[in-house]
Structures are given as structure tokens and as C-alpha cells.
Amino acid sequence: MESKINIPFYRPSIGFEEIKAVTKVLESGWLTTGKITNQFEKEIAKLCNVKYALAVNSATSGLFLSLNNIITKDSVVITTPFTFVSTANIIEHCGAKVLFVDIDSETYNINPTELIKALSKTQVSAIIPVHIAGLPCDMEKIKMIGDGFNVPILEDCAHLFPYKNLVGRAGVFSFYTTKNITTAEGGMVITNDENLANSIKKNRFHGISEDVYDRYINPDRHLEQEYDIIDCGYKCNMPDILSAIGIEQLKKLDYFIKRRKSLAFNYINALSEIKEVIKLPVNSDDHVWHLFIIQVPDRLSFRAFMSNNGIGTSVHFRSLTSTYYYRATSSEFPVANQVSEHVVSLPLYPDLMASEQDYIIEKIKEFFKLHLY
Prior knowledge:
Blueprint: H1 16-28, H2 35-47, E1 52-56, H3 59-70, E2 76-79, H4 85-93, E3 97-100, H5 112-121, E4 126-128, H6 139-148, E5 154-156, E6 170-174, E7 187-191, H7 194-203, H8 212-217, H9 240-251, H10 253-271, E8 292-295, H11 299-308, H12 334-340, E9 343-346, H13 354-370
Parallel strand pairs: 2-3, 2-4, 5-6
Antiparallel strand pairs: 1-7, 6-7, 8-9
Helix pairs in contact: 1-9, 2-9, 3-4, 3-7, 10-13
């Protein structure tokens, strides 16, 4: 009997450098948001060609803090149903209503034509395009549409790191463990808007006028000076322990992206000959390959077969309009609903060995030989 090997859907690329950096922070006596986080922010801002980068405890928090600054309650905000639920949830947390717009069948990103139709019918306060799997949306076209209707744009860049062509009022990265770089948990808001940056800076830590590091460490601060509460803020800051991991991950970013692209091309070359694979990902020069998503006729059987052979897979995403909370008739979002029934994400990460990818490809081919469609 053939022996199974265990290939998880994702394996984080953490080395001695990250462990050493975290240990240094632990030994410093300062564990929460401080100079290490400030350094991480500066490096991200420089990398992404923006004026401001604000570290937060998750991309969800970054989206919420950004949108909460852009819109008012009882607004309507457009996004796509083909995304992680946090994109829609934060709209409701801001007291607004979600208006879904269907996706493009090739890219899985928001469909500009459908976006125009929605904006023509409804008064909208913001648009949140989602860059799926590392493939950027057509932001030039979306920006033109947004400007035409005088609607600001907030970019969900959870899958798109690095991103150096910010078009919207802000963009938000995720540094969750599966992302192109990780801080275990965490996120980052990038923006060129000074007012938005200042708002997020104070509201990520309870609306307090001064950073906690400045209040306790800064020798120039007068002892009699008291901080003030200038807004009703939240608890969304990133601690230095996590930022230390992020700084070390940034040093490896070029290798990470190069490795992801190499693996993606291997998949494309090997799987393009399998006619039963309904669709392979769009190959683009600016794709950063956070995910490798294919479509298969029978996802349940396919995932079960892969699991039985020691290979982890995932689904990105179930259309939100098919869920209990965000349910809607399938006729309204035919592309998102059709795509979400067939998509499967394959293992794609820098530490995936060539022999492991060869095994994955071998088992995919074996599955389609056994299952004739």
C-alpha cells in the first residue's frame, strides 16, 4: 500500500531570525506598541510608496477603522460577495448597509460593469473592492467609476502584499499566518490621507491623544502633562512582539514572492493539460500569488480524495450571499454563486518542497483519471 505524506494547506515560513527578534523584544521589557512597531510602519510605508502606514491587530480592524472614518451611519457600501466575511461585517459594524456586486468570472474580482449598474440605482457612500488571491482589481477603471459617481474607495488588500499602486483613500493588508508575510495576527492600513492616518492612529488605541510608548518612555514629555481622550476609540493596536516578526519577514519578502510565483507557474504548466479542471487562475505579472485557486466539477469528492492522500486544501470563498446572514437569491449573483460551488485552493507557500508539489500534481492527475466527467 502506498504510504501517505502529510502536506498541510499552509505551513508558515518562520526561522531563527524571527525567533531571535521576538526574544529581543521580550528581553527589552517593552512588549506592547512601541519603537519596533513604529519601525515596521515606516518600512511598510516606504515599500508601498505611501506617506502613512498604521499597524493594527488585524485587517478586519484596519478596514473598520478606515471605513468608520469615511462614511456615516445608515450609509450604503458596495463590496463583493466573493470574499472573507469580515469585509461585509465591518460595513455593518459601521452602521451601514452592505450592497453586493457580482464578480468577474475570469479574475474573481469585482465586476466594473456591475459596479456601474449598482451605482446608477443606489446612493452609495463607499466602494470596497477586494483583490482576490493576490491578483489586483482593475483599479484604474474602478477609480474612474468611483470618481464619476463621487464615491470614495477603500481597498481590501488582505491578499495583495506587497501593493505599491494605492488608488483608494486607503488600503488594508492582512498579516495573518497564511499571508505573504505574517506577524501571526495583525494588519496594516496604508494611506496618503493625513486626516485619515491621524484618526486611525488615535482610534486604534481608545481615542487617546498620545501613544502609550510616548507617555511612559519619552524623556522629553513633561511629568505634569496628562493625556486626553479626544474620541471614542477602540483597542486595535499591534504590539512590538508581532511587529518584530513582521520586520524579519519583510527581509525575506522578495524570496517569498519569487518562490510563490515559481510554484504557481509549476501548477499552471502541469494542470493546464487536464481538461477536467474547469478553470486555472489568471496569470499576470502583478499577481503576488497569495492563493492558487482552481475550479473542479465535484469539489467534495476532490477534497476528500486529496485529504485521503495526505494533502490539505481549502475553499476561497463561499459566496456570502449563500450564507444564512447575508442570504440572497442566486439569480442576483450568478457568477459568485457558480464560482463558489467549484473553487478549491491548493497548497502554495515558500516552504512547499518541490517533491511535495510533484506529489500534489500527481494526485490531482490520478483523481481525474479515476473520476470521468
